[in-house]
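> tool_call: predict_assembly(chains=two)
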Amino acid sequence: MNTVPLVQCSEVRKAFPKPDGSELLVLDGMNLQIFEGQIVGLLGRSGSGKSTLLRLIAGLAMPSAGKVDYLGQPVHGPAPGIAMVFQSFALFPWLTVFENVALGLEAQRMPKLEIRKRSLAAIDLIGLDGFESAYPRELSGGMRQRVGFARALVVHPNILLMDEPFSALDVLTAETLRTDFLDLWGEGRMPIKGVILVTHNIEEAVLMCDRVLVFGSNPGRILSEIKVALPQPRNRLDPSFRELVERIYVVMTAKPVGPATAGRHERFPGLGIGSVLPQVSSNLLSGLMEAVAAAPFNGTADLPKIATDLQMEIDELFPVAETLQMLRFAEVEGGDIKLTDEGKAFAHAALDERKRIFMRHLLAYVPISAHIRRVLDERASHSARKSRFVDELEDFMSEEDAENTMRAAIRWGRYAEAYAYDDENLMFSLENPT
Amino acid sequence: MAKFEPFGFLRELASPWDMAAFVVVIGLIAFLGGAAHGFFAPLTALAAQPLSLDPVHLPEYAARTTFRMLAALFLSLIFTLTYATWAAKSERAGKLLVPILDVLQSVPILGFISITSVFFLSLAPGRVIGAEFVAIFAIFTSQAWNMAFSFYQSLRTIPTELSEAAESFRLSPWMRFWQLDVPFGMPALVWNMMLSMSGGWFFVVASESISVGHSTVALPGVGSYIALAIQEKNLNAIGWAILTMLIVILLYDQLLFRPLVAWVDRFRVEQEPGVRAPDSWALTMMRRSRLIQAATIAFHAAVLRTSRAVKRRDTPPPADTDTSHTGSADLFWVLVVAAAVVLGLWHLVAGLITATSLAEALHVCGLAIITMLRVFLLIALASLIWVPIGIWVGMRPQVAQYVQPVAQFMAAFPANLLFPIAVYGIVAWKLNPDIYLSPLMILGTQWYILFNVIAGASSIPAEMRFVTANFGVNGWLWWRKVALPAVLPFYVTGAITASGGSWNAAQVAELATWGNTEVRARGLGSYIADAAAAGDFHQIVLGVGVMSLFVVIINRIFWRPLYYYAERKYRLT
């Protein structure tokens, strides 16, 4: 076997400058090798830097430190042997299927005849025969993504980069496309040597990949590497398949090691008033508590199981579970979610009682909400400008994070009836609207 | 049974669409060729063959005006594709180029004509083409800015993934420009070209009679025909001019804009099915005709061939840690800009201080305030009339279909054509011109309010209408809680365009003449018009400068905040 890896990342670090001069660290200490004949999955939640890593490999961005090598050569800009498939398809709507596919070859200034031959072959391979003269708008989502695949394959890349290629499709279409892709890959009919797949869908990763790299956030880094040795085609109901899915859930919900990032606030950087709050509605919070409290879970649920039951992907489920954990309504560990006594009490209470419990926890465990309430209580007018709290938050976080945190605090505070907020004049108050 | 076709071979040779296309193309070439004839004649030829009000000459005049408009549109397109691209691609250049565009947009058109005419005439001394340059440039200034803005906006909003796709498939910048940037910006650009065309017609009279010092050069065209008709008090001729303009605008619409609108529909990125593409017989003709097909294929081939010729240079995307280098370059850039600003200010201030008094400047500011009051009052008045009508029309698609083209024609209708009525009325009834000349200012621009309100009302979702019907929300409550809030973002867009246009129109509308009778309203517009007629350079600069300043400030402190407020609070998504 060839010992030069297709792609090698060594100590890659990527940071984006923030307006205040500091920087936002997205990826740190990233080491990675991709060898021929593998489909490698980059699995993680949004914000874990996996798409950023894909763009570094594609040469669409440059690392702040460390290096990315392709076939032993450092990557300077998009390399000819690397092609990409996009989440939103990224087809040119003014070009026909044929013209979209031929575009990459035109850019290589290949002879006309050759372009025609190769484009038609790629269209044929991916099952788009008969659609050559159609415009993307005339195609369904699944057919559009097939064009995306054909366009990438036609340049005969060594590596195919796929950025959540199935996540904009409905369940059935996505499954058909995955199966077709795996068939072509298994039969060696695609002119590619390796595949990197970015996904936030755990089952998709286990279904398609030979290796799964699980990413953690803040900053993005590899938490764990899991080899999938199951033979293709794989069966989602196979016990060994379920076991791998369970294992990945455990990795993704594991508490971080080391004293630096203490306990429950792992995914909400900083402590106290500087915590960035996630965007989770009170409906989702009570919905998940109810689901976990009810049969068959009765207070403790296996995350993969409940994700399947609720038809939620990890990107949607994890923030809700973690918010419950932050509010001390639940514990998340080892791939399980377990309601606390207060969480159970909340799930079984009526609306008014729920609001009282929620207010107690909000003011006890969400420092910014407690702060807003305290200021309102102390003032004779019982009102305060929003900008004053935003300014305080911006001492700890970016403008955008401060805005989002404020929005979460407003949303939860309104549900708990801990304070009122008027968006017209940007004022907090204790009064109810008249 | 197959149908027997005796002349099957003829069908093979040329489709009926080919015939139609042939006739139209040859006709257009003959029309425009005749118009271009005489460009290189000496200026004295104009004097030897003075304008005639005989309607027989109108087709020729129309052709020459059309030619100027097309030439200006073409120049505007080139300006747009270069200036806007530069502003969008280079962050450093954009910081300067975008505000410049904003200011240029607010400079009144008469100002451009007076200031540039000497320069253009000196390019081809004693030849008609010099005067043609002035006219074309004046029309250009009424068309180019909003087109450039729209293209700049499009370039800044290209979806990231499309850019990344172009980048990862290694398109050269030249290829990317033609395959991604231009097609993406096309729909908005075509829409703005239509608006620009209306703006151009409005100033066609001003642009075709050029005063140089104390003499006036009148280029043969519809605009100077109208000017002459006004001077000679010939109502018949005015009628003929209106008819000619109607026909030319109609032809422009059918032969140029309808096909363009139908054609650019394919460049829309939102790929929702179900929205019917607009249709156009002219586009069908072009698509079915092999003649024109061959031409478009040739254009595509040219794009591809030039793309092959221009090689991609592989430059790595900038690593973001290295800021020291860009820092010093930024500083240098800022210094250059600062130096230019100081020099410009020095020149302007020194020139104005020596030539004008403080009292004069204050007087001009006072006039600007009068014009400002007029513009705001008129916008309010026009809104009272057109918002309810626009909502009513917008809720009825069958009606909207007929109202839109009429409004479009009205927007292009030059105010000068109403001078006879205005002057007669004011003189006959001894009316106050400060009040009764004002409606001319909003004559062309009020339609933007109507356009936009119609668009807003027709975009109210059907479900929302069902809900209001279901709960019996009607009468004043319906207007207050449903219709007015729903159209507000659209209305504000229309009002901004109308306001900008009205300031510009003030130069034409505040000073109306009919023969030797002159009726004037006090205001900045008539001040600039007087200064332009007298050729007083310092007064022109002062008037134009104050007007630009007022327009920019009003936009910044009134319209822009209002626009963002309406977008945030009332935009239905």
